[in-house]
Structures are given as C-alpha cells and as structure tokens.
Design brief:
Elements: H1 7-18, H2 21-32, H3 37-44, H4 48-60, E1 64-69, E2 72-77, H5 80-96
Antiparallel strand pairs: 1-2
Helix pairs in contact: 2-5
Length: 111
C-alpha cells in the first residue's frame, strides 16, 4: 500500500539533503541542466566516488532521478518544481537575514 509522507517528513528529508554543501552544489548544478556523473564530478572538483555517494543520498531523498541515455546515465531533478523551490529558498534566506551567518552544526549558536 502506498503511503503519503507527512509534511514534516518531506521537509526533514529536504533539509537533510540541503545540510551538506556538496549536495547543495549538486542540486544547484542540476537546477541549471541535467548532467552526467563524470561531468558533475569535474565541475564540482570532487572524486567520482564521493559524488556517487552524494547522488545516492539525493536519489534516496527523492530529489534526483536517473535517466538512461544509451550506455550512460544522466541525472536530473526529480521534479521541475524543485528548481523553483531552490531559488525561492535561496532568495528568501538572503532577503530575511543578509547580515547573519549560520554556524556549523558543532556551533552552539547554529541557526
């Protein structure tokens, strides 16, 4: 039986995906255009193994999908609305708190 995730579960999943700077960079790159893993690794300057782990996380979160393309596999955002959501989040945070910095998770004063 298909279950629908609660709003809290959906937001928590999105938050986990955005909690890592590399995953944010991947999402922003895919916001621009679908891409192949090798190309993404080169653009982001990370190893293919590291990229693969982050792409698996984003797939598990339901944010990206794979699209077979001959012998290769292309990645893209799972839904075009994610591109709009990323833009909205990015601009909303800048508009709300342009004079603030968010500490690392280890900081006691993290936003």
């Amino acid at each position: 039986m298909l279950t629908v995730a609660s709003d809290i579960e959906v937001l928590a999943r999105f938050g986990r995906a955005l909690a890592d700077p590399i995953r944010c960079r991947i999402l922003l790159a895919l916001r621009e255009a679908p891409a192949y893993p090798a190309d993404l690794a080169d653009v982001l300057g990370i190893s293919r193994t590291r990229l693969s782990n982050h792409l698996a996380c984003l797939r598990d979160c339901g944010l990206v999908v794979t699209v077979p393309d001959g012998r290769r596999t292309r990645y893209e955002l799972a839904d075009v609305r994610l591109a709009h959501a990323l833009d909205d989040l990015r601009t909303a945070v800048v508009a709300v708190a342009t004079d603030r910095t968010c500490g690392d998770a280890d900081d006691k004063g993290c936003c």
